[in-house]
Amino acid sequence: MADELVERLQRLHPAAEVVQRDLAANPPPLIDAAFSAAILTPPGETVPPALAMSEALIRELEAADALVIGTPMNNFCVPAPLKAWIDQIVRINRAFRSTPAGKVGLLRDRPVYLVVASGGWFTGPSPIGTPAQPDFLTPYMRVILATIGIHDLNVITLEGVTRGAEQAERAVAHARAEMVRLLPE
Question: What single string gives the DSSP state of each residue in the chain?
């Protein structure tokens, strides 16, 4: 579904350049002690080697006019590779600054399309009335992106995708309808 959304964006913006990053195939490194020490480097100084990936990912994000994130919901939240990416881009004095009033994002706002696939239902009860499962993914993504200055979050859901072919088809149809609503041609 995320690929379909990117194709739709390309039709709407033919001159757009697409940069694809497969976090599952090439996950960013996890935060370690060297990264934690390096983030204390004063702004304006040379970027320490421990922050090289972080800097590359932030620059990639800064260059983007829109962002499409396709992700499963794992155990009610973000999968580990997406969390590793988030930890690399949410960097003090680079993507946000801390003030007495709270965190202030340093990146410009842009539309983000978050495509979330889940085996269960999290926006409401299942078709047979089973209560919605907890959703820590979408509120977390909303807060974490806002922390760095990105507020325009659009969520497209595919729910119950592991509940048989018929339900998966309904989930895809629902997601396509939401995509058309968000990005009319």
Answer: -HHHHHHHHHHHSTT-------TTTSPPPPP-HHHHHHTTSPTTSPPPGGGHHHHHHHHHHHH-SSEEEEEE-BTTB--HHHHHHHHHH--BTTTEEEETTEEEE-SPP--EEEEEEESS--SS--TT-PPPPP--HHHHHHHHHHHTT---EEEEEEESTTS-HHHHHHHHHHHHHHHHHHS--
